[in-house]
Design a protein that fits this description.
Helix content: 10-25%
Strand content: 25-35%
Number of strands: 10
Radius of gyration: 18 Å
Shape: globular
Number of helices: 2
Strand order of the largest sheet: 2-1-10-9
């Protein structure tokens, strides 16, 4: 399985999500985001910020980097899965009525009004060893399991 990591030597210690894992998040076009997707973003406020970062997901049972959950790297406080938890599927997936579809788009724009975020690369295009763009170094690694390897028996003598 492919994972994102910040530790090339010991990938599980730097675990930042399993590539392709679905999240609750959508970009401003309504496209669902997955762990490993690369997004570009820009703000609409007085101090514009532009960047390109991966979608990551933390799990403290594997590597403890703080709270669990998916988010856009570098934008955890403003663009994370928690903001989208009660969000429905996209109108196409959920077969919504026209009124429900309008409400979907209004909610999406409300959640993302300060941030224009769009997917620029799919997780499916990632390759093992790739260094992902962004301010926080993240690499694609292949692991057999999310369980840490047992430490070898150490003879105390």
């Amino acid at each position: 399985m492919l994972i994102l990591t910040q530790n090339k030597e010991n990938p599980l210690k730097g675990y930042h999500g399993t590539v392709g894992e679905p999240t609750n998040m959508y970009d401003f076009k309504g496209e669902k985001l997955y762990v490993g997707d690369i997004v570009a973003f820009i703000t609409n406020d007085n101090q514009p910020m532009i960047g390109i970062e991966p979608v990551v997901s933390l799990n403290s049972k594997i590597a403890n980097f703080g709270s669990d959950g998916a988010f856009v790297q570098g934008l955890k406080s403003v663009f994370d899965s928690e903001h989208f938890e009660s969000f429905p599927k996209s109108p196409e997936e959920a077969d919504l009525t026209e009124e429900e579809s309008e409400q979907f788009w209004e909610r999406l724009y409300g959640l993302t009004e300060q941030w224009a975020i769009t997917k620029v690369k799919s997780f499916a295009q990632l390759v093992v060893g790739e260094r992902l763009v962004g301010d926080f170094p993240c690499y694609v690694a292949e692991v057999d399991s999310l369980e840490p390897e047992p430490e070898e028996f150490k003879n105390p003598f």
